[in-house]
Amino acid sequence: MLIPAPSWLNAGDNAWQLTAATIVGLQSVPGLVILYGGIVKKKWAVNSAFMALYAFAAVLVAWVLWAYNMSFGPELTTFLGHPGPIISSVLEEGRATIPAAASGMPGLAFPMATMVFFQFVFAAITLIILAGSLLGRMNFRAWMVFVPIWLTVVYTVGAFSLWGGGWLGSLGVADFSGGYVIHLAAGVSGFTAAAMIGPRLQRDRESFLPNSVLVTLAGAGILWLGWDGFNGGDPYFANADAAAAILNTNIATAVALLTWTIFDTTFFKKPSVLGAVNGMISGLVAITPAAGYVNGWGAIIIGVCAGIIPWLSMNWLGKKAFMRKVDDTLGVFHTHAVAGLLGGILTGILADPRMLEWVGTGKAAPGVSYTGWAYGDFHQVVLQLIGAGFIIAWNVVGTVIILKVISLFIPLRMSDEDLLIGDDAAHGEEAYALQGDGERRPVLGD
User: Fold this and answer.
1) Is the pTM of this model over 0.90?
2) pLDDT tens per residue, range 110-166
3) What's the pLDDT tens digit per position in 86-99?
């Protein structure tokens, strides 16, 4: 049976938004699932991949039952929306809306259900990125509880404050697609959680070689191309800025990867595949808050900076004694927190007001276009620093409180005996039918 579409629905915009959401989802499942499964040592492959898979499912259920409205629903406070289910109202509400509509922006050309799904995949990948700091020792039961609580207490506040009509967005802080809401938040919370949970076993910290570099690269490739939906979907229309955001994303990522590789080759005498992956991720993260706000030259500058600053953070600052006390398994602090903060500040410098304009008018769209310091407005840099400061403070405090409460009921860290074994102890499963580190081997009489 053919059902006519409402007059406000644009089939192209709706198709693109659903496609963008789906490829962002693919960044998590299977992208980060197999990247995590491949980049850790063999005995942690299943546990690491399962942490990502579990988070994807748990976030979706919490998202439709209460967290979407806390992030994008009617205002409860300037930090938060009213909690409540969205699952029954997506059809009743029909056309999706965003808070910017109050300033004269045209309504969205796709249904509410599309908006809910699109924003879900962003929320899900935030928890999965955070997990990268905790691989190789967090109690899975504690992770099961942590995911929905962190989403509710921490993520929703950042999302509403910047994107849902809250105080940071109203103030003028720019975050095109999640440099602050997603990456800075995940990096800071992951580092905080890693400090509280404690390090991996010393033998794992000293030797944590990937069980499959090729699997890691497959996950990295899905992550890179999936970012086209990550940044290309955030104009909310299949328009020229979506195309510019996608091109900028790939330019910055390629430049960052090459810059990181040059630094590895210069200082360590060998180009590293895993180093290139870190450079790729840093470039993707750094361009995220700026993707639709900067021109091509801005993307190149961001790529160069993303290949240098996070490299220095990981390979110089990260090796200092005070940083080594915190066991951030995959260096999420460097590739996400540092890169996200860097991208946010560079947005304040490089945002080109000509990138976004009213449809057909040639005039900048107020509340949507931003003018960076390079184009005459230093105040945008100040606003970016205010936004970063709030996100950092909220994530540290929120994460500490959540883990303190969980630790009263569930151990945050696996026992040392289970840490020696790994996947088999945690799940009774192993990634490969091969003998190796962590496998329980039969003894005489078994």
Assistant:
1) yes
2) 899 999 999 999 999 999 999 999 999 999 999 999 999 999 999 999 999 999 999
3) 987 666 667 887 76
Is 437 inside any structural domain?
no
Element (H, E) at 76: strand 75-77
* Sign (positive or negative) of CA dihedral 426, 428, 433, 437: positive
Q: Give the max Cα distance, the chain.
A: 82
442 is a domain residue: no
Three-class SS state of 338: helix
Domain assignment of residue 435, yes or no? no
Q: Taking Cα atoms as reference points, which of 294, 392, 291 lies closest to residue 352?
A: 294
How distant is the alpha carbon of residue 334 from its chain centre? 13
List for the chain the helix, strand, coil content (%; round to 5): 65, 0, 30
Task: Give the pLDDT score at 446.
Answer: 37
Q: Is 7 domain-assigned? A: no
Helix 339-350 with 379-407: angle, nearest 10 deg:
160
Sign of CA dihedral 369, 285, 60, 170: negative
Q: By residue range, what is the domain housing residue 221?
A: 12-99+107-427
DSSP state of 414: -
Q: Tell me the CA distances in angstroms from 135 to 170, 200, 330, 407, 420, one per residue in order.
A: 37, 8, 8, 18, 14
Tokens describing residue 76: 């409860």
Instruction: State how many domains the chain has.
Output: 1
Which residues are CB-contacts of 261 (< 8 A; sequence separation ≥ 6)?
271, 272, 275, 276, 279
Give me the amino acid identity at 195. Answer: A
First to last CA, the chain: 63
The CATH number covering residue 226 comes to 1.10.3430.10
- pLDDT mean across residues, the chain: 91
